[in-house]
Amino acid sequence: MSASSGAGIYKVLDDERINGRADFFAGLDTGIDEAWSPGIATLIQSDSEVEDYRWLGTSPMMQEWLGEAQGQQLPNYAAYLRNVQYEATLQIQKKDIDRDKTGQIRARIAGLGAKAGRHWDKLGTDLLSNSETAGGANDGDLKDISGRAFDNQAFFDTDHSYTGSNYTSNQSNDLSSGVWDVATATAPTPDEMAKCILEAVGTIHSFRDDQGDPINAGVRNFTIVAGTVPIQSAALQAVGLENLTSGASNPLLALGNKNITFNIVLEPRLSAKTTKLYVLGTGGDINPFIYQEEDAVSVEEEDPSIASKHIIAMAKASRAAGYGLWQKAVLGTFS
User: Fold this and answer.
1) Tens-place pLDDT, residues 278-297
2) Which residues, at least 6 apart from 247, have a Cβ–Cβ distance to it below 8 Å?
3) Residues near 151 by Cβ (< 8 Å), separated by ≥ 6?
4) CATH code of the domain covering residue 245
5) Is beta strand 174-175 parallel, antiparallel or unpaired with respect to 329-333?
6) pTM exceeds 0.85
7) In a domain, 68, yes or no
8) Are strands 261-266 and 221-226 parallel, antiparallel or unpaired?
9) Quick check: 279 and 332 in contact, CB under 8 A?
10) What are the distances in angstroms from CA 260 to CA 150, 223, 253?
11) How many domains would you assign to the chain?
């Protein structure tokens, strides 16, 4: 099969016989459907290199109107995300194009699209991997290498607070004691897991905003992320069991009556987190992560020259991933 045209110019994306562009976008759609992390992120469309997120505080609750209206300014957090240009490039030998009779080139192009569709999962996993330590410069950068939430604490920390706000009490979304003390830290039982998930959900629902009001009353959907099969297996059983091994009713079933749902995810990139469980709730304006997109995924091809033995097909995007609301996420560490 030859995909050359004109003066020896090779194409795979726009050649009428191969039509690799259609394969790329079909793969992209598949990858997007398979990705888990966009469900815990708020997507922000960007039109500049850097976007500010100084508005990550909350609005005041209504109160009795006595005298002049008591206006409150939005908290001014120094938080931002800088877009990054990403690419993935296939170098395809022209002879391979000529000789391909089984559609292998099309499959590779579809695979390029599928991986581009799952790119957010890579960025989201990087956020989780770096979320326990506030590293980097203390300048408000919300991306993964900083590990910092908008309050400049580590995203998962024991003493989050709203300095200078109406509510300044410490709040912890980093849990490691009580029900998290299990028989085998790397392989909790379904019974133990059910109690831990229940506490994580309760903790998220108990968080208050910087005005002292409950912030997560509308959170009903939870994504539970595990890095290992034993922890994922225990979580799957915990949300599905009618009764615990003790014979008692599974407390998680009562949450189902409140329209609370769970999505259990195994993320192999987190396989080193053998004693960790990430519980992330969604609902409201801002989710645990912010996904910022300046340029959506696109694909281009180029034949460098008639003297070249290969052509290239490149997927590209301009985007960034950063920490959103720590109040909608809990990290549990089994011990």
Assistant:
1) 999 998 889 999 999 999 99
2) none
3) 77, 160, 161, 162, 163, 326
4) 3.90.1690
5) parallel
6) yes
7) no
8) parallel
9) yes
10) 27, 11, 9
11) 1
